[in-house]
Design brief:
This protein is of the alpha+beta class and 210 residues long. It folds into 2 domains: 7-110, Beta-Lactamase (2-Layer Sandwich), CATH 3.30.450.20; 127-209, no CATH class. Helices cover 40% and strands 19% of the residues. It contains 7 helices and 5 strands, in the order αβββββαααααα. A 5-stranded antiparallel β-sheet has the order 2-1-5-4-3. The termini are far apart.
């Protein structure tokens, strides 16, 4: 007959699973509320050990809240952590253990800072006017994405009818004056070049009839 799993053993398995899934950025600590000591650590990031004081004097265990947090705290290395605490109760409903999941956000903050630095607009210079005054591709891109925004859709979601209307609107905007514009627009809209020319032919025929 299998031995019943104790509450602590079950919590340890949960702690190990969470730590393994989010390794190396998550630590899981189990506090024994009967002794106010650390009972178990998975992926130790805080340099504590079992038997250390849990430091829960100011924590309201009896509040009845199933989950506390997320809240922020500072680790020994000066890096921030975001944490949630979940009390585990016995059969009488009394809290016996506290499961704390601590996410180290240092790596994410470093990545954000690197992106902020890389994408900083303060390092950009205005486009050289003489070099880009006839940049027909950028003008097409600007009109195209503004059109898509107003239609509340995306480039990949455009229907065939929407693509046809976009070709017409681009034509009316003068987008096809550039030598390679038709090929470029066909490529961007994932249309055959023959299809774009067909739309333009129909459009010009209609203008002639008018």
């Amino acid at each position: 007959m299998l031995k019943p799993t104790s509450q602590l053993e079950l919590l340890q398995s949960i702690a190990d699973g969470i730590a393994a899934l989010f390794f190396p950025n998550v630590e899981v600590v189990i506090h024994d509320l009967s002794t106010n000591q650390v009972a178990y650590l998975a992926n130790n990031l805080s340099k504590r050990k079992p038997g250390d004081d849990a430091g829960l004097d100011d924590f309201d265990i009896n509040s009845g809240t199933p989950v506390t947090g997320p809240y922020e705290k500072l680790n020994w290395d000066g890096k921030k952590m975001r944490s949630v605490s979940i009390p585990a109760r016995d059969e009488q409903g009394n809290p016996s253990y506290l499961l704390c999941v601590n996410l180290s956000t240092g790596m994410f903050e470093d990545a954000r800072n690197a992106l902020d630095m890389f994408l900083s607009v303060t390092r950009l210079q205005p486009q050289p006017q003489q070099l880009f005054k006839d940049d027909w591709q950028e003008k097409i891109n600007t009109f195209l994405h503004e059109w898509i925004r107003l239609q509340n859709t995306s480039l990949s979601s455009l229907s065939r009818e929407q693509k046809k209307q976009l070709v017409i609107d681009l034509y009316n905007e003068g987008a096809f004056k550039a030598k390679s514009a038709a090929d470029y627009i066909a490529n961007v809209l994932s249309l055959g070049r023959a299809t774009v020319y067909k739309y333009l032919k129909e459009l010009k025929k209609g203008e002639g009839a008018a």
